UniProtKB/TrEMBL annotation:
It comes from the Eukaryota. This is RNase H type-1 domain-containing protein. PANTHER family: OS05G0353850 PROTEIN, POLYNUCLEOTIDYL TRANSFERASE, RIBONUCLEASE H-LIKE SUPERFAMILY PROTEIN. Residues 207-231 are annotated as: Disordered. GO terms for molecular function: nucleic acid binding; RNA-DNA hybrid ribonuclease activity. Residues 217-231 have a biased composition (Basic and acidic residues). Residues 37-156 form the RNase H type-1 domain.
Length: 315
C-alpha cells in the first residue's frame, strides 16, 4: 500500500508546475440525494489520529456527524477508516441515495478498483466495498481539501478527543462557522492545474478560466459539471493505468527472482545481469525504456528512434 501511495505522489510531482488559482467550494448533491463528506487526520507514528464525517441535505443542512479517535499507521488508513464509519452511519439511518466525497484519490482508487488488496488495509477496503453494495444508490467521488473543511474539523476533533466515539445530532461548536461558510456557497482559493484547450491561445484560456469562475460565483444554484469531481475521475483513471504498468514491472521482478532460485547454481542468473535487469525495470516504469515482448527483456530507445521505428513500420 505504501509503495503504491509513494509512486502516486512521485508520478504527480510535475503537476505542481504552471498552476493557477481556482475557486473551490462545497457543492450541493442532486435533488433527492444526501451528501456525505469524510476525512482522516493522521498525527504520525505514535501520535493521536482520528476520523470524522458529516451528512447533509441538498440545502446544506446538518443531518448527522461523527468523530472518532483511532490508531493507524498511515494517512491513507485514516481516510479509509473515515469512509467506513460514514458508510456505516448511512446504513444505520437507512439512507436511500448518498453522494460521498473525500479528498484522498488513492483511497478512492483502492476501493473502486476490482483488484484484491493486500496488506494492513485489506480488511478496511473489503468492508467499504461490502457497505457500498448495501446502499441502494451511491456515488463515490473525489473533492479538493478546501471543499472538505467540515469533515477535516471533525477528524481533528476525533484525534483530540479522549471520550471514545462521538456521534452528533447537532453540529459541534467549532464546526458551525465552517458549516455556515459552505451553506452560503463561499469559495476558497486553491492552486490547481489549468484546463487547457489546445485550440485556444494562452490568452483565451486565461480569459475563459476567469469568466467561468465569475459565472460560478454569481450563480450558486446553476448545475455546472464540477471541475474538482472531473479531475478526481481523471486521477482515478491515471492510477489504474499506473497500476497496470506496476503489475507488469512486478511480474518481471518475479521472473528474475525465479531465475535466481533455480536448483543448480550454474543455471541461475548471475548478479551482474540481475542488477542490470532491475535497473531496466525501474527506468521503464519511470517512462525511460520499453519492454521487448519477443525477447522478454527490457531495452532502451531514444524518442527520435521511437519515431523512426514507428514510421518504418508504417511503410
Amino acid at each position: 500500500m505504501q509503495v503504491r501511495e509513494f509512486f502516486y505522489c512521485v508520478d504527480n510531482q510535475e503537476e505542481t508546475k504552471n498552476k493557477v488559482i481556482k475557486q473551490v467550494r462545497w457543492s450541493k448533491p442532486e435533488v433527492g440525494w444526501l451528501k456525505l463528506n469524510t476525512d482522516g487526520s493522521f498525527g504520525g507514528e505514535g501520535a493521536s489520529s482520528g476520523c470524522g464525517g458529516l451528512l447533509r441535505d441538498r440545502n446544506g443542512q446538518w443531518i448527522r456527524g461523527f468523530a472518532k479517535p483511532m490508531v493507524v499507521s498511515s494517512s491513507l488508513a485514516a481516510e479509509v477508516w473515515a469512509l467506513r464509519e460514514g458508510l456505516t452511519l448511512c446504513l444505520d439511518l437507512q439512507i436511500q441515495a448518498v453522494e460521498i466525497k473525500l479528498d484522498a484519490s488513492a483511497a478512492i482508487s483502492f476501493i473502486s478498483g476490482n483488484s484484491n488488496t493486500n496488506g494492513d488495509l485489506c480488511g478496511l477496503v473489503d468492508d467499504c466495498r461490502v457497505l457500498l453494495l448495501q446502499l441502494p444508490q451511491v456515488k463515490l467521488l473525489h473533492c479538493y481539501r478546501e471543499a472538505n473543511s467540515c469533515a477535516d474539523a471533525l477528524a481533528r476533533l476525533g484525534a483530540a478527543g479522549d471520550g471514545g466515539d462521538s456521534y452528533f445530532v447537532t453540529p459541534p461548536h467549532n464546526v458551525i462557522p465552517l458549516l455556515n461558510f459552505d451553506f452560503l456557497g463561499k469559495h476558497r482559493n486553491r492552486l490547481a492545474p489549468p484546463i487547457v484547450d489546445p485550440n485556444l491561445s494562452t490568452r483565451k484560456v486565461n480569459e475563459t478560466v476567469t469568466e467561468t469562475e465569475e459565472d460560478n460565483h454569481d450563480n450558486y444554484d446553476h448545475k455546472d459539471p464540477e471541475p474538482e469531481a472531473e479531475e478526481g475521475r481523471h486521477h482515478i483513471e491515471n492510477l489504474r493505468q499506473m497500476n497496470a504498468n506496476m503489475h507488469k514491472c512486478l511480474l518481471s521482478v518475479f521472473k528474475i527472482g525465479l531465475a535466481c532460485s533455480l536448483e543448480l547454481p550454474q543455471e541461475r542468473m548471475n548478479m551482474e545481469n540481475v542488477t542490470r535487469e532491475l535497473h531496466h525495470i525501474k527506468n521503464t516504469f519511470l517512462g525511460i525504456g520499453f519492454m521487448d515482448n519477443n525477447q522478454g527483456s527490457w531495452n532502451f530507445v531514444k524518442k527520435s528512434d521511437c519515431r523512426k521505428s514507428s514510421l518504418n513500420s508504417r511503410v
